[in-house]
Amino acid sequence: MNAMKRATNLLAATACLFLVCQPAHAYIDAGSGSYLLQILFAGILGGAFAAKTAFTNLKLVLARKMNSSKGDHSAPHA
Amino acid sequence: MPEVLTLGSSFRDPSGFVFKTSKGLYRQINQVYKESFELLEGSGLLSELWAQKLLVSHERVTETFIELDRGYAVIQPAEVPFISYPYEWCFSQLKDAALATLKIQKLAIGKGMSLKDASAYNIQFLDGHPILIDTLSFEPYVEGKPWIAYRQFCQHFLAPLVLMSHVDVRLGRLSATFIDGVPLDLASTLSKPHTKWNPKIAMHLHIHAQMQAKAANSGTKAEVSSKFNKNAILGLVDNLESLVQGLKWAPDGTEWANYYEDTNYSSESMDSKHKLVVEFLESIAPRPQMVWDLGANNGEFSSLASKRGMMTVAWDIDPAAVEKNYITRKSDPKMMPLVQDLTNPSPSIGWSNAERDSLAQRGPVDAVMALALIHHLAIGNNVPLEMIADFLAKVSQNLIIEFVPKEDSQVQRLLASREDIFSRYDIENFRKAFGRLFDLTIEREIPGSKRTLFMMRKKAA
Questions:
Q1: Which of A25, B162, B300, B318 has the largest count of CB atoms under 10 Å?
Q2: Which residue in A8, A20, A49 is closest to B222 by CB distance?
Q3: Looking at residue B405, what DSSP letter applies?
Q4: Residues 10-69 of A with CB under 8 A from B
Q5: CB contact under 8 A, A42 and B206
Q6: Are B421 and B374 in a shared domain?
Q7: Structural domain containing residue B293
Q8: What is the pLDDT of residues B119-134, one digit of tens each?
Q9: pLDDT at residue A20, as a whole number
């Protein structure tokens, strides 16, 4: 058994701990494995997205500050 | 009540269904979907998707419900002029359709909803851009619930895109065999040697396939109620988007992609052929609304029709030629490039062979162009001239067709490696074969070549 298979087994076993059975109303089969995968990678995906969003916001704030300071310098004197 | 036809592809989702009457195409929304539809309208998602041209527009109508006890409302969606299928799309069409689906999902989550399916068949091309045609694809977003359509997105979009990009572009045709998308274990097996070190593909394809196998063996059937916050679902969509954005495919100098640089046409005869095709197109009355260009290559001649406001489907067997046409003519709203093997055309597939129409079922159209094609069918594939005429009469009302004689260098090239068993392949037999079914209205030699261009009108039945 290769390393990827061993890791997947471990991940699948861990994921089962978080499962709460509920009646399904969806008309397509979401696939248990597809659900498990999303749960397992939730932390990584959510963390990466939060970091990306924070970085984008920081860039926007900095760009706004740079523009406003440029605007201050170029503003005509009354 | 007018005669009603429920579409053969519209049976899976209990939220509603599509039906046709003599007055047009309608979608019934069932009571069970009332709450979701009101949220779609009230949340602003509907207007946002319409503003961004990501969802087909519709009008509420007062048509009689088909099933009164279940009905909540009836809408009439805007018409999509031509329905195409994922297995007919080139690489960039499938990629653009995937990115449109992910963009829609991001917008939906922002408005408190989520896509409950991500079928590639729910995307069509309108004015050259991918658009969602299933207005009932949304459900209220529930915090903590993973994306229900993730598996379907990976099977319908990600798996074929990875295979086309990393293994062979012709594997896009697998979608015709697997109507609910390419199984992830199959895609993983085929692509693993090329993609195992790509962490995003490893997660969404290889580990995903293994997780599916493990979960299937354990018999687990569950919904998850925790650990998956809004950042996680947005992160999932963002991760998929960046993976799909990074997938590339470029043709590497195929024979067909360079066809227009590799013919026996001089620039003078090419110009003459352009003029003749335009003259023939303009002579068709009433003016064609829908044109199919069979064997369109990169769409050079198809664009003569599309630029005149005729909706033009440019079919070609070569994914490279279709890719080139799609990329270079995205701004042409009347151009629809698609991959098609005329020697084995798209069949009708799905439940009861009625979910997806065959090529012939989507015709007949006002006009068909078959330029520099007949020798590939008659000599390249041994199809008798009569059978070619039979097929073209099935799909066209008017036909612009080029006869390429044996003396032509392109035909000589086809015969170079095989015995010439085509004693009946000449212009006289061509006229006879087509004259059974068509009136041959114009016949012109193309200056500077040995070829002849015909304008034909199908005989009244």
A1: B162
A2: A20
A3: -
A4: 11-12, 16, 18-22, 24, 26-50, 52
A5: no
A6: yes
A7: 259-458
A8: 999 999 999 999 999 9
A9: 41
